[in-house]
Amino acid sequence: MPEQKIKYLLAIDDTDQENWPGTGHLLEKIRKNIENNQWGYTGKITRHQLFVHPSIPYTSHNSVMCFPGQTCQEFITEIRKCAIELIKKESAPLSDPGICMVLPEELCFPEKLIRFGLRAKKEKLSKNEAYALAKNLSIYLSEHGGTGDGIIGALAGTGLRLSGNDGRFRGRHFFAESIIKYQVSDLCIKMPIDSVCTENEKYLSTKEWVFLEGKVKTILKNNQSVLLVKSHREKNQTFWKNIHHSELKNY
After folding, report:
1. pTM for this structure?
2. Among 12, 42, 59, 169, which is most exposed with the fewest C-beta within 10 angstroms?
3. Domain 6-168 belongs to what topology?
4. How would DSSP label each residue in 73-128?
5. Rounded CA gap, 86 and 97, in Å?
6. Tens digit of pLDDT for each residue in 33-64?
7. CB atoms near residue 70 (< 10 Å)
């Protein structure tokens, strides 16, 4: 009988500083190392926006990165060790790195972790709160330099990813220098997009048309990769168009 796969979420935070590769860049290295070692499947990285306040130190936007994966029990420790080694090796000298690894199917009270993540978007939280919750839920959480405040964001990042309704996917699917027209059905085949939705929660049918321009990025919504669009009027015509990158900063 094949060994049962274990699902996990891995998040890191506060690994960079000014003029240093971002946390998303480091997490992508971790993700690729896992796949290169054939330790199982890894999903796309999502970026989650946390509370921005003068009392909270951050490099640029105070965001945390997280990805999901599936592996065998025997590789869980190896994955953690690999991630920690890369964090120690490649984090910025003045950073405060933290890492969190969650096994969602073993969580007795997932709503507590999600609630912590949602709070981190609106208020300043402490390391003591993070460690207490991690201990209560049997979640792996550790710091690796500086103040170690990155554990707060790392724990929050796993909660937000677990919610299935927060954040945007790292990177872009492509860049359209001029407007390109796609039918939704074709768009979902050609790109890693599950559905197309308006800001008012209206999902477009597969037969509708969307105009794409600039950076094409998606958000995490209902555990899917969703392209957000809005109504756009030009030359007496009204059509759906992808929301500009700058407007996605709230996600």
Report:
1. 0.91
2. 59
3. Alpha-Beta Plaits (3.30.70)
4. GGGHHHHHHHHHHHHHHHS-TT---EEEEE-GGG-S-HHHHHHHHHHHTTS---HH
5. 11
6. 999 999 999 999 999 999 876 665 655 567 89
7. 14
